[in-house]
């Protein structure tokens, strides 16, 4: 029996099969090595080196992850889940504006763990074809809920958009990345953001 119909071509697509055990192990090995490489060398770490350190060929890496953003998306799924969990925790906080800024601070902290991530997230927000859009969209939805609550409470201006806030947050992370000798920079910039939101 044919798989689902592709909306783009009108042809039947084969149904997705679960990964074989060896393929799943290779996938997990690549993600683990990439997580370490991105933390140590930034998100522009060599994909060839990642494949080699995982004991695999570059072709195997590209079979699992067709491009760098796809690999980054896989690496950052745990952090994405944590950020989404945090947004749910903050959804009923007494001070909605502070909750929003705390959540934005958690994004800055996460982005700061991987040199180059903030820049990649900024570019992905403008590129719907990027695999990182799979990270951006759930964050955007979670942030929009926190922003809406803060606006409804009257503590945040009505003309503030979640897209602007996420770009600003990534810009803060990028500024902090470029100023490693000033560990308080991100917090100061977030405080300025809080003042500007009111």
UniProtKB/TrEMBL annotation:
The keyword Transcription applies. Residues 24-83 form the HTH tetR-type domain. Coiled coil: none annotated. The keyword Coiled coil does not apply. It holds the Pfam family TetR_N. SUPFAM superfamilies: Homeodomain-like, Tetracyclin repressor-like, C-terminal domain. This is TetR/AcrR family transcriptional regulator.
């Amino acid at each position: 029996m044919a798989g689902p119909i592709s909306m783009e071509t009108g042809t039947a697509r084969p149904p997705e099969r679960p990964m074989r055990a060896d393929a799943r192990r290779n996938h997990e090995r690549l993600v683990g090595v990439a997580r370490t490489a991105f933390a140590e060398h930034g998100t522009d770490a060599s994909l060839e080196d990642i494949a080699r350190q995982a004991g695999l060929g570059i072709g195997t890496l590209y079979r699992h992850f067709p491009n760098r953003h796809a690999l980054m998306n896989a690496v950052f799924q745990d952090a994405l889940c944590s950020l989404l969990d945090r947004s749910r925790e903050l959804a009923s906080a007494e001070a909605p504006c502070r909750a929003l800024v705390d959540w934005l601070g958690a994004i800055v902290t996460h982005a700061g763990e991987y040199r180059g991530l903030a820049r990649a997230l900024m570019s992905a927000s403008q590129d719907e074809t990027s695999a990182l859009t799979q990270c951006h969209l759930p964050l955007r939805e979670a942030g929009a809920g926190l922003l809406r609550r803060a606006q409804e409470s009257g503590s945040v201006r009505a003309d503030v958009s979640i897209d602007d806030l996420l770009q600003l947050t990534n810009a803060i992370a990028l500024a902090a990345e470029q100023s490693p000798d000033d560990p308080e920079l991100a917090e100061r910039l977030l405080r300025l953001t809080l003042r500007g939101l009111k």
